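Budget justification, computational time. The allocation requested in the original proposal was used primarily to generate structure tokens for proteins on the priority list. As evidence of use, we reproduce two of the resulting records. The first is shown immediately below.
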Amino acid sequence: MNNRRYERFLETVKVSYTILSSVDSTPFEFGEAQTLDISRGGLALLLREKVAVPGLLQLQLRFPQRPYGMFVLGKTVYCTPVENVGKFRTGIKFVGLLPEDLEAVLNEAQDFDAPD
């Protein structure tokens, strides 16, 4: 039984992220990643480094069908090592409202995945 609130899509999306500090206005770490999956509620990333949980990230999502990046805020909810890979599977829950363009991309993905 699937208890997820939102359907997950296995679309690979390029992501740039900035880890934000709760005590300083200056971002202190940047990185690049790709999604493992994405939904209206959040996404999973495979990161080279371990990140704090909970933590706040600014994410720039770059979908192939859009000529520009979309910015969203996310909160880390888990960060677990992946055996024999040396990376970390990291779950991120979106914070706040999603950009309309992101909603549109997710609707397109849902339509694409729908059975005929």
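The second record produced under the same allocation is shown here.
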Amino acid sequence: MTSVPPRIARALLETPLMSEGHEDFRETWKWRRELRKVFSDLTGWTVQISPGVLRLCGQAPFPDAGRAGSEELDSPRAASMFAWTLWYHESLGRVSELHQFTLEELAGAITQASGTDFLKSTDRQALTRALKALTALGAVQLIDAGDDAWLEGRGPEGQAPLPGTVGGKLFEFTVLAAYLISPAPPDSPTDLQRAYRALLTGPALSRARDPQAYLALDATACRQIESVFGWSTDQQGDYAALLRDAQPRRSAHHVPQGRSAGSAAALLLTEAVRAEQATGRLGRDTQGRVLISGGELYGLMDTVREQYRAHWGQFGLKSTETLLGETLDRWRALGALSDWPGSPDGYALEPHLARVRAAYPDPQPSEKRSRTTATNATPGLFSNDLT
């Protein structure tokens, strides 16, 4: 296989949409043809090469199952606004050469197309989170910060925010936005290519979720991916994981980092499940997955909520049922949750969840700004600082 410095392969993997101005672009561009062959052979992914742009196709900006690719896309509504914003870019391209827009113009166009009126603060927040995610990807840049009147629902002299409220913030689409709209080429990956994809874009390759891919990951295959990316492979019998030296910056399926209250709650519930399993009250199936009923999860979520909701602001006012539903969505997005076969109200949790540990350094309710940290059963898989 063509030789590429591991740090160059990692750079494109972690920033699959890269343009001039990115700190790693110039050096990565020198290896563009070698990178195309390496990723094609290893994973079946395509590397698109355009003037000033490199795109690793096959990694969506957020995963197929949900929103784990960005802390900002932590809800179906935010993910929907992400898609609507790209739709708006596409409409601008057809009718105008202008690519700058205000927050109000964007909201107005989405309202006409979808019926969303943005009078609900949750819809306004979802749109702003989508714009933050697009900004992090480099597809949108902030031109004028303006003010937060629109987001906070403040119109002129206390009037309703819509219609008529000036959005305040001015944005501009970059050349990368069009690449998020164009689909990746269709493909038919081999068992081994699926194994490599799971290792590179997710926390782990689970034997339960893809038995054929797991069987294809033999010692030779492990050495191959280790030589390309410089990361060791850890196989635990029921799953395999790459021991990265740091949390991937933009990996599609990375573990939530605890920067939001929702992801912190999900991490803390994972810790509660681990503690419950240590008592011997939770069983495992033949593929190493932890089996737990919906009622047991509800009880654990209720305990976590009571203990930590003082850290979560308005998020902490949500019901236990709502918090649990959102956490299950996050676990599904990580490929870590399945239905318990034969149980109408049960779940099977993938064993790789046990690699992540979470706690507040100082869980005092009086603390104004809290931090959630996570460590790993095996150091180096994910960042130890998930603040």
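A brief technical remark on that second record: Confidence is low (pLDDT under 50) at residues 60-68, 157-166, 363-387.
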